[in-house]
Design brief:
By secondary structure, this protein is mostly helical. Helix content is 65%, strand content 0%. The longest helix has 27 residues. The protein is globular. The mean pLDDT is 87.
Length: 108
Amino acid sequence: MRDEPSRWSGYYEGDAAEQRLARRYSYSDRMRYYWPDPEIAAAQDRLFANLSTVGIPLPLLSAHLPDQYRRVRTGALTPTPQDLVVDRIRDVLRDYDRACRVQDKEYV
């Protein structure tokens, strides 16, 4: 993001420290605009290949992806980088699904 500030600078106000914080933690991050970039895709492929080679230690998984850790421990999820990422994304989608269903029930 620092290499191409034109993609996000209009969305984040404040001084350099506030913008750095927003780039890292904002709910409205602009990362989705970078995913198609060949350099980003190559870095992701390299990261996944490296993690597949060495394996992800369970304590690390437990600390950063606790729901995926539990699913790996029960055998419901394989600890491959791709499977972990997709499952984490699905967790977010599950939250949206639950939120929509609760709202539907309240208004029916």
